[in-house]
Amino acid sequence: MTAASLTKLEQDCLAAAEDFSANTLAPNVMAWEAAHSAPREMFQAAGDAGLLGLLVSPDQGGMGVSYVALLTILEALAKVDMAATFALIVHNNHARAIAVSGSDHLTDTYLADMIAGRTVGAFLLTEPQGGSDAAAISTTAIEDGDDYIINGAKAWISNTPTADILNVFAQTEPGAKARGILSIQVPADAPGVTRLPAYEMMGGYAIGAGGFEFRDVRVSKSQLMLPVGKGFQAAMGGIDIARAGVAAMCAGMLRAGLDVAMPHLLKRQAFGAPLADQQGLMWTLADVATDMEATRLLAFNSAELIDNGESAVEAAAHAKKFATRAAFKGLNACMQAMGADGLKQEFPFARHLAAAKMAEYLDGTTEIQNLVISRALKKAYAS
Q1: pLDDT (tens digit, 9 = 90+) per residue, 118-149?
Q2: CATH number assigned to the domain comprising residue 330
Q3: What pTM, to 2 d.p., does this model score?
Q4: Does any domain span residue 233?
């Protein structure tokens, strides 16, 4: 996928993303990482750059880019920092959900401020004991007149330190699993909401991973976005593009690895010749380049299917499975090619390797992708 295949608007969005990467992310990500910080100012800057309404239609104040264009933008951003990129796409997806499924009340209350970066969104599906079983939601939403009373806990939530509005998925009928789940918008400062400290992790702090607890939180039914039985279906409805997006971010990180390692090999001498003349090193990086191209093709194939209204379930599973393995292996190879210099904080390998490992868990683990692919194989060969 090249910029030439994008519309003029999409090319402008890509240019804005590249400018944002160079002038907001690149100068700050190391400081954010050192401070274990998920910066709120990043969202304001992204809003100013027009990067927070990417999936909202123009008549609602957004950009309305295609999914292929979205992946091109994610790739460009993740080349600098995947954790920050993921935080931004979570917010974009939340804005899109409100634009598509929200009532007039919800769109009037939140959408403009989300697109501008004044209000930060978070997606609260995962629970402390849920793991890969996304439908195993124990957080409850019990009707009480014109309100719902919410109790429970959520874990591994992006944007925890910065979120203002929470897209909470809750169970109305314990034991009902998917058929009892709704989606409701909960202000993060509502009485009874506890914002837990962000997790201490191996890296990737701009994602703002943490959790929330809810104790007798009273929320008006006017905040309901998806009614009982529709919440889980909607949550899973965007999983294919989410997985393709993670793959595109992995491609961006692989490009970053090559962009750091190759100049180093060309400049540094060993045994009287540039390191780039060492066939073993170069063939290793040639494999990284091949995996990067394969990652891009798998990711963009998934996005093209979705843009064309076709199923991308299997394609997205292949893309995410391959990309996350390729990213961790390839970044490690680029770091190894740098020798001990690769350990220095002036280079991005520690941050990217942490993000590559994180990518293996985001939007379904490798094991879940294998489950999806296995089901597709059985269906194909049983017919």
Answers
A1: 999 999 999 998 666 767 799 999 999 999 99
A2: 1.20.140.10
A3: 0.93
A4: no
